[in-house]
Design brief:
386 residues; mainly alpha; Methane Monooxygenase Hydroxylase, Chain G, domain 1; two-stranded antiparallel sheet; 14 helices; 2 strands; elongated; cell membrane; transmembrane
């Protein structure tokens, strides 16, 4: 706990968690005071519940989710009100209300708030059944909408006024995490290949790790989207002395790393198939050695991508461009033939050889790495021209 608190003093996940807890507590408390002490509502918990839901990681998400939530609750209450007043508070009415609410909840526009349609309908039905007159029933249903509206407004307002969340660093962190995962895989691959070792147990592990990169890619995309959204409707953007960064470079870098992870999965699959067919005795050890040099050069690029820092990104991009040029030289050497164990020249460009596939995949990998470096370079140039 002490270590966690010390980390919370610095900018990062722990501090963001504390801020979310603190703001949620404040919003819920204010909403409870308004609904219970001021309005003396029959079901005051609707307001603080709604307020807590609206404390999102960005102001944009708070507003977007409040609109969806209000729509979902409004739909649930409207369904109950319409069917209840027509059919009465019976069991058949409850079943019909549930069915209609579940159908409406599947509307894609409601997003993650779709489940709130049937939840609101259930609460509305419960309050409808307890009411003793038509006027009281209408009043109770209207109070649900009013309390939800108050809770949403308080939640959005608290998130907007109390330390509005800025997530500039999340884009940088997303790229760094994804690049680090790719770098780890490349760094584990090139030493055995340089020794000419193709062991299926090892290549199978590479293949599995490459296939698991998809989840890291998804997290990186989410981090960049969060960074972009944190700028929208955020009053802190007008108080910052530094310029608001553009995220096009980070978006492009994640997209390029996404394609790189796909190509890397293809490389590991081909190596695994080659290991299976050659039983650990590769036909072209010289090619594997050159391929190892190429992968090592790519590992150096991803290592630099995993160290991206907004304050030093201009210098880092220059180094990335230089390293991309070095990896291009290693890629150009891959098509050279080498002498086999029995003095027979082994061609790596033959269509029947698995190394021909590796050669094509190496070319694609090189293109994607160069594209990622170019995108970051153009992003830096755009920042300088602003």
């Amino acid at each position: 706990m002490g270590q966690w608190i010390r980390r919370a003093r610095r900018e990062g996940h722990e501090r963001n968690t504390l801020l979310l807890i603190g703001k949620s507590t404040l919003a819920a408390t204010i909403a409870w005071v308004v609904s219970y002490n001021v309005l003396q509502a029959a079901a005051p918990a609707f307001a603080p519940f709604s307020a807590v839901l609206m404390i999102q990681v960005t102001i944009y998400q708070s507003i977007a989710q409040s609109v969806r939530y209000l729509g979902a609750v409004g739909a649930g209450v409207a369904v109950q009100g319409l069917i209840g007043f027509l059919a009465g508070p019976g069991l058949v009415t409850f079943a019909v209300v549930t069915m209609v609410a579940l159908v409406i909840g599947r509307w894609p526009r409601l997003g993650s708030q779709g489940s709130q349609v049937v939840t609101a309908a259930f609460f509305a039905f419960a309050m409808y059944v307890m009411a003793t007159s038509t006027v009281e029933r209408a009043t109770q249903l209207g109070s649900i909408l009013l309390l939800v509206l108050i809770g949403c407004a308080i939640g959005v307002l608290v998130n907007l006024v109390v330390v509005p969340p800025m997530r500039f660093r999340s884009a940088e962190h997303g790229v760094r995490s994804l690049a680090h995962a790719v770098c780890d895989l490349l760094s584990d691959m090139h030493p055995p290949l340089r020794e000419g070792e193709l062991i299926q147990e090892r290549t199978g592990q590479w293949r599995q790790r490459a296939s698991r990169l998809d989840s890291t890619v998804a997290q990186a995309h989410s981090a960049v989207r969060t960074a972009e959204e944190s700028v929208y409707y955020n009053p802190r953007r007008f108080l910052l002395r530094r310029r608001i960064p553009t995220f096009s470079g980070y978006v492009g870098a994640v997209q390029a790393l996404d394609r790189i992870s796909y190509q890397l999965a293809s490389v590991t699959r081909t190596l695994d198939q080659a290991a299976s067919s050659q039983e650990g005795r590769p036909e072209s050890p010289g090619f594997l050695e050159r391929y190892a040099d190429f992968l090592a050069a790519l590992a150096e690029i991803t290592a630099k991508l995993s160290e991206l820092d907004e304050k030093h990104i201009a210098e880092q991009v220059e180094e990335l461009t230089s390293r991309a040029g070095q990896s291009r030289e290693y890629a150009s050497r891959l098509s050279e033939g080498d002498e086999g164990d029995e003095g027979v020249t082994v061609s790596v460009t033959g269509g029947s050889s698995p190394y021909a596939t590796l050669l094509v995949e190496a070319s694609r990998l090189q293109e994607e790495f160069e594209h990622a470096c170019d995108l970051l370079k153009r992003s830096v140039e755009q920042e300088r021209s602003r």
